[in-house]
Design a protein that fits this description.
Helix content: 25-40%
Radius of gyration: 19 Å
Mean pLDDT: 94
Low-confidence stretches: none
Shape: globular
Order of helices and strands: EHHEEHEEEHHEHHEHHEEH
Number of helices: 10
Number of domains: 2
Strand order of the largest sheet: 3-2-4-5-6-1-7-8-10-9
Strand content: 15-25%
Structural class: alpha+beta
Largest sheet: 10 strands, antiparallel
């Protein structure tokens, strides 16, 4: 069901493999031990797991948690799959020093037959293919897997981890939401903008607006800074980050981010948002946006 997946992402410009390794390792560890702490404890029990072979073969012991890491060293290379164990996880983290194009940890509960259920949690880091110094950090988890809708604490944990990781990465953008479409923000999904272009321009234009939004320092300056944004009344929390960026949280909990709150956030951030008139698209009714408006009209 659309809208039932909790999502977090950040974008950062990473100048070297050493910096990439620090940021990527920090992201994987922060999400797994913070945002997905219960799953982390299950994985640490090291249940017997199998690599997927076919539709009939079990992936592991019944009613356990399956987890595996995958690494693509280059955009054109095939992935290398490693089943989770404490040792394999540490090897995976150390391997981030080689600056891979794409790395992920994926988890799924297994049913009584040892087959994966239609629930998933994933942590990933991906470089832009043609501009590899730009990196996309992402995490997702189903409601049926994580039960985040009934847990303001878990929502707060995800907000906090994104704030902390933005400091580590000096992120130019970030969010916590339940309406991203793949690597696209909700706003990007309905406007004719290439996600790769918007990432490259994320210090000049804001890629979207969500329950939690991270703004680059350059965008924060254009918006007038902390005091101006607080006076809008659109945000429950406005925090200046150490590098000049902003952490913005619209309401205490994601469940409270209703149409009224969405409009307030849009109006506060419109001067720096992607331009283009928003129209409703069939199948995307869950997107938390203000429709029939163009942010360019607010500049």
């Amino acid at each position: 069901m659309r809208g039932d997946v909790l999502m977090a992402e950040t974008i950062a410009h990473v100048a070297s493999d050493k910096e990439y390794s620090i940021c990527a390792r920090s992201w994987f560890e922060a999400v797994l031990t913070g945002g997905l702490s219960e799953l982390h404890e299950e994985l640490r029990q090291e249940p017997r797991l199998n690599k997927p072979q076919d539709d009939e073969s079990p992936w592991g012991d019944s009613c356990t948690l399956w987890g595996a890491m995958s690494v693509h060293q280059k955009p054109t290379s095939g992935g290398r799959l490693s089943l989770y164990s404490i040792g394999a996880w540490e090897k995976f983290l150390k391997g981030l020093s080689r600056g891979p194009h794409y790395a992920k940890l994926e988890m799924s509960p297994l049913d009584v037959n040892g087959k994966p259920e239609s629930k998933i949690a994933r942590i990933s880091v991906e470089r832009l293919r043609d501009d590899p110094e730009w990196v996309h950090f992402s995490a997702i988890a189903n409601q049926s897997f994580l039960n985040w809708q009934e847990s303001p604490k878990r929502q707060n944990d995800w907000a906090s981890l994104v704030q902390g990781q933005a400091e580590v990465q000096r992120s130019s953008f970030g969010n916590v939401t339940n309406d991203d479409i793949g690597n696209q923000t909700a706003l990007e999904a309905i406007l004719p903008h290439s996600v790769w272009d918007t990432i490259l321009n994320s210090r000049q234009e804001l890629r979207g607006y969500s329950w939690v939004t991270i703004c680059a320092a350059e965008i924060a300056e254009r918006l007038g800074g902390v005091d101006v944004l607080r006076r809008t009344g659109a945000f429950y929390e406005v925090t200046k980050l150490s590098y000049g960026g902003l952490f913005l949280r619209a309401t205490p909990a994601l469940n409270e981010y209703d149409d009224v709150a969405v409009r307030k956030v849009f109006e506060a951030l419109a001067p720096v948002l992607l331009s283009g008139r928003t129209e409703r698209i069939r199948g995307y009714e869950h997107l938390k946006l203000v429709y029939n408006v163009d942010a360019a009209d607010y500049r």
